Every structure is written in C-alpha cells, then in structure tokens.
Amino acid sequence: MKCVACGATFDTNVTSVCRICGLPEISYLGDQEEAFRAMKPTIDACRNELLSKLSVGVVSYRWADRNGVLEQSGEEKRVIGAGPELSKGTVWLGEEFARKPEAEEIEIRTFIRLNGTDTERTLRVSNLKEAKLQQVGAEIGIRDGLVYRLALRNGAGERYSDWTPMFD
Ligand SMILES: [Zn+2]
C-alpha cells in the first residue's frame, strides 16, 4: 500500500502503520471520498509531524590544485533547509558553486535526513551554461505523498529537476 500522507509504500500484511510517518490504518464505514475527508486531519497531522523532523541537503565536492592537476580533495554535506520551510517554497543555499560548463545535465547528490539517518538520491537538473557561479535550492511539494525537487540559479536563469518522491 502507498501511504497517502507521505508516499512511502508498506506491506499491509506486515504492519497497519506507515513506517515513515506513522499514519495508522483506519477502519471506516462509507465510501472512499467520505473516508478521505474524515481522515484528512490525521493525514495532515502525520505529514506535518514528518516534515518537522526532516531536512534536505546536497553533497558538494571540493577540488584542489596538486601541482597543476585538479584533484578531488573531499566532499561535504550541506543542509539546504528543514521540511516546514521547504514546503512553503524554494529555499536557496547562500553559498555559490562552480558550474560544469560542458554538460547538458548535472547530476546532484541529495540527501533526506530523518531521525539522524540520511537517505541519498541523485537528481538531474538541466545545466545553466552561462559562465557564472550558481546557487542550489530545494523545495518540497505534496503530490500523492511528499515529493521534492532541486533548483539551480545564477543571474542568467533558473532550472529545476523533476518532482521526485521523497520516500519509496
Ligand atoms: Zn506515511
């Protein structure tokens, strides 16, 4: 079953409670629309509780000059924002990143941090080719569960990844 609050799938033979957001299975007499209306406060509460516990970030790479050759010298995780603020619109990291000039698309490693555990997912954003540093942003939406997308911007434009489910 796919959870209507967060979008995670779970096996109803094993558990009647969503493993991600805790939405319980509720027995209800009536049609689906009516049940959904009756359950909406519970669905919203589970989703908001989940949003308040999660944050989204990106993994960036550091490069260093080693005798004229650029070598990757490390990677860093940067939190873009917490669930509640990301669900109100795009939040941008203050820092600017170098662009990858030749690529049509950029693959960006993201992580969803929930209860101290990071789940990584790579999102693709079409490249801004103008020779400027760019900022990265993120946003959370509600589409049949929780979805998120990444954004890139510089003075010349703005690009977005596809909306992607946050939980499997
Ligand atoms: Zn759920």
Can you lay out the helices and strands and say which pair or pack?
Blueprint: H1 32-53, E1 54-66, E2 69-82, H2 83-86, E3 91-92, E4 105-114, E5 117-126, E6 135-142, E7 146-154, E8 157-160, E9 164-165
Antiparallel strand pairs: 1-2, 1-4, 3-6, 4-5, 6-7, 7-8, 7-9
This protein binds zinc ion (ZN).
Zinc ion binds at residues 3, 5-6, 8, 18, 20-21, 23.
Structure commentary:
The chain has 168 residues and is of the alpha+beta class. Helices cover 15% and strands 43% of the residues. It is built from two helices and nine strands; from the N terminus they run αββαβββββββ. The strands form two sheets. Strands 3, 6, 7, 8 and 9 form a five-stranded antiparallel sheet that branches. A four-stranded antiparallel sheet has the order 2-1-4-5. The chain is elongated. The termini are close together. The protein binds zinc ion (ZN). Zinc ion (ZN) binds at residues 3, 5-6, 8, 18, 20-21, 23.
